[in-house]
């Protein structure tokens, strides 16, 4: 068995940088890593690669050192996140199987989560960029459902729009659950996390 206290995880919140995108559906990944950083009492700072903001910490019960985790918010736009993710993975010597992408998912209802390892990009530009830069899709995903656009609204317009007023009331619960799911994944493993959160 490997020593989980020395293993490093990279948890990447997918989103677009800048205040105009902050509350978009496409930016739920940023919201989740912000929640984790707040729980840890830490603030994001520029990483020396210059391509992302990061927080470094450990996850686990008080007094019990758990796995080391690097939270990251790439500074690039969604379709170019692969480069910064690859740079961080190389810097910290993290294999793809220890990378977690937190992202929005059209095919899952709002308020719902799904966790998995590997898979395609399903049209998600952030995942597509990561797969291209890492040379594999075999990384973990925490998928936060946003549902499909209503009527004939274009998908691009829907994901780049802010959450509705009704959704904004429920959003903190989804973000909190997704943050819990990340912590469960890195401390207890994918199977346990799926049993708890894939509902």
Automatic annotation (TrEMBL):
<dbReference type="GO" id="GO:0006515">
    <property type="term" value="P:protein quality control for misfolded or incompletely synthesized proteins"/>
</dbReference>
<feature type="binding site">
    <location>
        <position position="21"/>
    </location>
    <ligand>
        <name>tRNA</name>
    </ligand>
</feature>
<dbReference type="GO" id="GO:0000049">
    <property type="term" value="F:tRNA binding"/>
</dbReference>
<comment type="function">
    <text>Hydrolyzes ribosome-free peptidyl-tRNAs (with 1 or more amino acids incorporated), which drop off the ribosome during protein synthesis, or as a result of ribosome stalling.</text>
</comment>
<feature type="binding site">
    <location>
        <position position="79"/>
    </location>
    <ligand>
        <name>tRNA</name>
    </ligand>
</feature>
<comment type="function">
    <text>Catalyzes the release of premature peptidyl moieties from peptidyl-tRNA molecules trapped in stalled 50S ribosomal subunits, and thus maintains levels of free tRNAs and 50S ribosomes.</text>
</comment>
<dbReference type="InterPro" id="IPR036416">
    <property type="entry name" value="Pept_tRNA_hydro_sf"/>
</dbReference>
<dbReference type="GO" id="GO:0072344">
    <property type="term" value="P:rescue of stalled ribosome"/>
</dbReference>
<comment type="subunit">
    <text>Monomer.</text>
</comment>
<feature type="site" description="Discriminates between blocked and unblocked aminoacyl-tRNA">
    <location>
        <position position="16"/>
    </location>
</feature>
<dbReference type="InterPro" id="IPR018171">
    <property type="entry name" value="Pept_tRNA_hydro_CS"/>
</dbReference>
<feature type="site" description="Stabilizes the basic form of H active site to accept a proton">
    <location>
        <position position="104"/>
    </location>
</feature>
<dbReference type="GO" id="GO:0004045">
    <property type="term" value="F:peptidyl-tRNA hydrolase activity"/>
</dbReference>
<feature type="active site" description="Proton acceptor">
    <location>
        <position position="26"/>
    </location>
</feature>
<protein>
    <recommendedName>
        <fullName>Peptidyl-tRNA hydrolase</fullName>
        <ecNumber>3.1.1.29</ecNumber>
    </recommendedName>
</protein>
<dbReference type="GO" id="GO:0005737">
    <property type="term" value="C:cytoplasm"/>
</dbReference>
<feature type="binding site">
    <location>
        <position position="77"/>
    </location>
    <ligand>
        <name>tRNA</name>
    </ligand>
</feature>
<dbReference type="Pfam" id="PF01195">
    <property type="entry name" value="Pept_tRNA_hydro"/>
</dbReference>
<feature type="binding site">
    <location>
        <position position="125"/>
    </location>
    <ligand>
        <name>tRNA</name>
    </ligand>
</feature>
<dbReference type="InterPro" id="IPR001328">
    <property type="entry name" value="Pept_tRNA_hydro"/>
</dbReference>
<keyword id="KW-0378">Hydrolase</keyword>
<comment type="similarity">
    <text>Belongs to the PTH family.</text>
</comment>
<keyword id="KW-0820">tRNA-binding</keyword>
<keyword id="KW-0963">Cytoplasm</keyword>
<keyword id="KW-0694">RNA-binding</keyword>
């Amino acid at each position: 068995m490997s020593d989980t206290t020395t293993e490093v995880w990279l948890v990447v919140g997918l989103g677009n940088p800048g205040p105009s995108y902050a509350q978009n559906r496409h930016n739920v990944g940023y919201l989740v890593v912000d929640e984790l950083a707040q729980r840890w009492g830490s603030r994001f700072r520029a990483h020396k690669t210059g391509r992302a903001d990061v927080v470094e910490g450990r996850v686990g019960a008080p007094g019990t050192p758990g796995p080391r985790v690097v939270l990251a918010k790439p500074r690039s736009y969604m379709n170019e996140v692969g480069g910064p993710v690859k740079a961080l993975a190389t810097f910290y010597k993290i294999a793809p199987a220890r990378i977690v992408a937190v992202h929005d998912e059209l095919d899952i209802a709002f308020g719902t989560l799904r966790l998995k390892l590997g898979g395609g990009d399903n049209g998600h530009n952030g995942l597509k960029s990561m797969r291209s830069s890492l040379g594999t899709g075999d990384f973990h995903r925490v998928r936060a459902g946003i549902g499909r656009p209503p009527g004939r609204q274009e998908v691009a317009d829907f994901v780049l729009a802010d959450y509705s007023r009704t959704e904004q009331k429920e959003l903190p619960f989804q973000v909190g659950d997704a943050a819990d799911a990340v912590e469960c994944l890195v401390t207890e493993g994918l199977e346990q996390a799926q049993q708890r959160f894939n509902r």
